[in-house]
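thread: overnight batch results

M.L. [08:02]
morning all. the overnight job finished for the chain we discussed friday. pasting input first so we're all looking at the same thing
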Amino acid sequence: MKRILVGVDGSAEAANAAEKAADLAKATGADLTIAYVVPPRPPPGPEAYVPKGDLVERGYAAALLRELELRSRREGVTVETETHIGPVAETLADVGVLGGFDLVVVGHRGRGSVRRALLGSVADRLVQISSKPVLIVR
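M.L. [08:03]
and the structure it wrote out:
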């Protein structure tokens, strides 16, 4: 294994996934990339070029990635961070392929079946569409 991608969203489960991915990277000598995906939002109207919510989320993503990068550093492990925009599961699956990753890691919140059916689950969707192996950390 040479490259590991971990998708994060600020949840405790995502932080656990980043920790597990860092441990795996150290054990296998792989490089680690921590990615945050900003979901697309429709533009609010012709007068606004960049929605304020997007700027806030991008700032949050940068701070989160910086924190997780520091926490995920292990001796001998190269850690990079990336921010992407798009549907979360689909974007992680695409990045996994285009980036040549060997493994994609995500956290799972463990919602009940009703909430998961109503809200969806990035982890569930990613497992269905990814051509790369997916590790789900709880």
